[in-house]
Amino acid sequence: MLDIKGSITAIITPFDNEGSVDQKALRNLVEFHISNGTNGIVPCGTTGESATLSHEEHFDVVEIVIDQVSGRVPVIAGAGSNSTLETKLLTKHAKDAGAEAALLITPYYNKPTQEGLFQHYKEIATSVDIPIILYNVPGRTALNMLPETVIRLSKIDNIVGIKEASGSIEQAVEIMKYTENFTLLSGEDSLTYPLMTLGAKGVISVTNNIAPGLMAKMCSCVLDGNYEDAREIHFKLSKLFKVLFCETNPIPVKKALYLMGVIEDEVRLPLTVMSKEGTEILKSAMREIGIELVNN
After folding, report:
1. Low-confidence residues of the chain, pLDDT below 50?
2. Rounded to an integer, what distance in angstroms lies between the CA atom of residue 225 and that of residue 230?
3. pLDDT of residue 111
């Protein structure tokens, strides 16, 4: 059975100054995460600006990450869409490319009913033989997948977990209480520590892009029962958790990586680079936890 736990990076997609995927920077990012103890990598999620990647770019990013990881940690390929047919296409590519699992966001814009959500995920799961992790993020999709729907889906063999980003601890607890052999991962960095103390197995994290060592240590401490040290790391990172979402994700985290000298300062429209005011707040939060700023 696939064992997904700990600190998993929702990796950004770096672009060069011409707006193309920067393949060298992407490979370097993979090495940065693995060398700092990251337990898994998610390419082409929301943080990877999947909504503005062409299918060819999406496939390339997934394949590059899988190639660079080379089996050292699980790769969970983002493969969700608001179209069931497109989701099936992206999920099949994830399997064929060698991903260990696929992360499937709830269909956005369409706003299906709970029955529609069930049938959407059932169709993918029965069509593509790959472990599937559900992704519930109402703030992005305007749709909340209710616990009873998640519990129902958890009974399908290859639906193995959920990235839960509703912001509701109560909802997460209900899912954990009424599922078996089903992994709940935090989808909000600021809730990782409390959710893990309640039984979540880890996080698919934005903050992990710039502070992978601290996030990995926090998660491992909780999994080892060392709640005191984990709580100290949570407090240390708490300001950064907030600042990384002061403008639309992944604007702040890509600015942070630019400040670290790791990538170019590029996002794709309709996103724009971080404001000067936000950048100054971000710099302060990064300095507080000892991150060196190269492009200052």
Report:
1. none
2. 9
3. 93
- Catalytic residue numbers? 135, 163
State the Cα–Cα distance between residues 263 and 148, nearest whole angstrom. 42
C-beta atoms surrounding 12 within 10 Å: 26
The angle that helices 84-97 and 55-69 make with each other, rounded to 10 degrees, is: 30
- What digits encode the pLDDT tens for the residues 189-202? 999 999 999 999 99
DSSP-based three-state secondary structure for 177: helix
Q: What is the DSSP letter of 295?
A: -
Enter the tokens of residue 13: 């997609």
Distance CA 233, CA 26 (A): 27
Superfamily of domain 6-226: Aldolase class I (3.20.20.70)
Determine the pLDDT at residue 2.
Answer: 78
pLDDT at residue 120 in the model? 98
Residue 162's φ and ψ, nearest 5 degrees, are: -145, 140
What is the per-residue pLDDT across 136-178, written as a single tens digit (0 to 9) for each?
Answer: 999 999 999 999 999 999 999 999 999 999 999 999 999 999 9
Q: Which residues contact 60 (CB under 8 A, 6 or more apart)?
A: 21, 23
Cα–Cα separations (whole angstroms), residue 85 to 81, 149, 157:
9, 21, 21
pTM of the shown model: 0.96
Rg, C-alpha atoms of the chain: 18
Q: Are 95 and 63 in contact (CB under 8 A)?
A: no
Closest CA to 289 of 220, 240, 217: 240
Spacing of C-alpha 252 from chain mean position: 15
Q: Distance of CA 249 to CAs 81, 231, 282, Å?
A: 18, 25, 13
What's 15-51 look like in SS3?
A: ECCCCCECHHHHHHHHHHHHHCCCCEEECCCCCCCHH
